[in-house]
Amino acid sequence: MQEQIQRRFKLPDGTEQRIDICVQTSQSHIGNNAKDYRYWGDNRLLKIEKHDLYNSLKLRQFKQNMRQEALDFIRELIKKYGKNGIYLWDPYLNAKDLLETVFFSQYANSPIKALTGLKIAPQENETSSYQADLANEINQAILQTGWLNLTFINADRSKVGDFHDRFIIFPQAIDEPVRAWSLGTSVNSLGKSHHIIQEVEDGQIIADVFEEMWEQSINDENNILWKSKNN
Predict the structure, then answer these.
(1) Regarding the domain delimited by 2-26+60-227, which CATH topology (the fold level of the hierarchy) does it fall under?
(2) Strands 195-199 vs 224-227: parallel, antiparallel or unpaired
(3) How many other CB atoms sit within 10 Å of the CB of residue 57?
(4) Other C-beta atoms within 10 Å of 151: how many?
(5) Which parts of the chain are beta strand (E)?
(6) Which top-level group of life is the source organism from (predicted)?
(7) What is the DSSP string of 131-183?
(8) What is the mean pLDDT of the segment spanning 115-126?
(9) Alpha-carbon gap, residue 160 to 219, rounded angstroms
(10) Tell me, what's the pLDDT at 161?
(11) Residue 27 confidence (pLDDT)
C-alpha cells in the first residue's frame, strides 16, 4: 500500500516543480572513429552497439546548449537507480545544483548525500554567513519537503585536501550492485560545453572513496552546510 505525497519546490527561475513521492507503508565500449571500409557489416554493428549503449544509460554525450538534456539525463538516472540513495560528489556543488538534480528524487526518505569542496574563508563569520545564505536559498525554494532526506556537507580540506572528482553514485542494495557515473564536468556546467557522462566499471571503488571522504568530513558539524529537518 502506498501513500501519495508530493515534494514541491521552486527552481532558480521561479518554476514550481511537483514530484510525486512513493511512500511504502509497512565495460563501456566506445566505437573507434576510424572507419573500416572493408566490411559494411562492421559499421552496421557499430551503429547498433552505439544505439544499445545510448539506450542502456551507460554513456551520453553532451555539447554546447544542451543544458536541459543533460539535466534530464541525470534525473532519468535518479529515477531508475535512486531508490536506495544518491551520492552527489562535485567540488563546486551549490544549492542551485541540488535543486536541479537530487530534489527530483521520487523516493521517500531515500538518503541523499551531497559533497562539495567549496573553499570557504576560515573566518567564522564568513563561514556562518555562507551557510546561512545557502540554507536560506534552499529553504526559500522548498514549498513542501515530501520526505526529503538530504545532507549537504563541505569536505574537510584539512583531512581530505582538494579534490576534482565529479560523480553521481547510487549505493548498493541487497540484490543490486553500486552504480556510479562520471559526470565529466561540474553540475553547474552540465550541457554547457562538450562533456561525456559515463558509467564507471567498478562503482564500489568510487563509492568507498566517497564514503571515506564523507566520514572524515561529517564528524565536524561546521562542515554541514544543510540538512533535512527529518534526518
Answers:
(1) Endonuclease; Chain A (3.30.870)
(2) unpaired
(3) 17
(4) 17
(5) 2-10, 16-24, 59-62, 86-89, 112-116, 142-144, 150-154, 167-170, 179-182, 195-199, 224-227
(6) Bacteria
(7) HHHHHHHHHHHEEE--S--EEEEE--HHHH------EEEE--BTTB--EEEE-
(8) 70
(9) 13
(10) 81
(11) 36
**Which long-range contacts (C-beta less than 8 Å, at least 24 apart) are formed by 214-217?**
214/87, 214/113, 214/115, 214/153, 216/156, 216/159, 216/160, 217/115, 217/153, 217/154, 217/155, 217/156, 217/159, 217/160
Alpha carbons within 13 angstroms on the beta-carbon side of residue 17 total: 21
Distance CA(210)–CA(204), nearest Å, equals 10
Helix-, strand-, coil-residue percentages of the chain, each rounded to 5: 40, 25, 35
Largest CA distance in the chain: 68
Evaluate if residue 113 carries a pLDDT over 80.
Answer: yes
d(CA 229, CA 227): 6
CA proximity to 92, closest of 66, 122, 127, 119: 119
- Rounded distance between C-alpha atoms, residue 46 and residue 40, angstroms: 10
Three-state secondary structure call for residue 22: strand
CA-angle at 172, arms to 170 and 176, nearest 5°:
105
| Residue type (1 letter), 108 | A
Q: Are strands 112-116 and 86-89 parallel, antiparallel or unpaired?
A: parallel
Q: In this predicted model, what pLDDT tens digit does every residue of 166-208 receive, in sequence order?
A: 999 999 888 889 999 999 999 999 999 999 999 999 999 999 9
Of the given ranges (42-46, 158-162, 181-185), which has the lowest mean pLDDT?
A: 42-46
Q: How many CB atoms lie within 10 A of CB 117?
A: 21
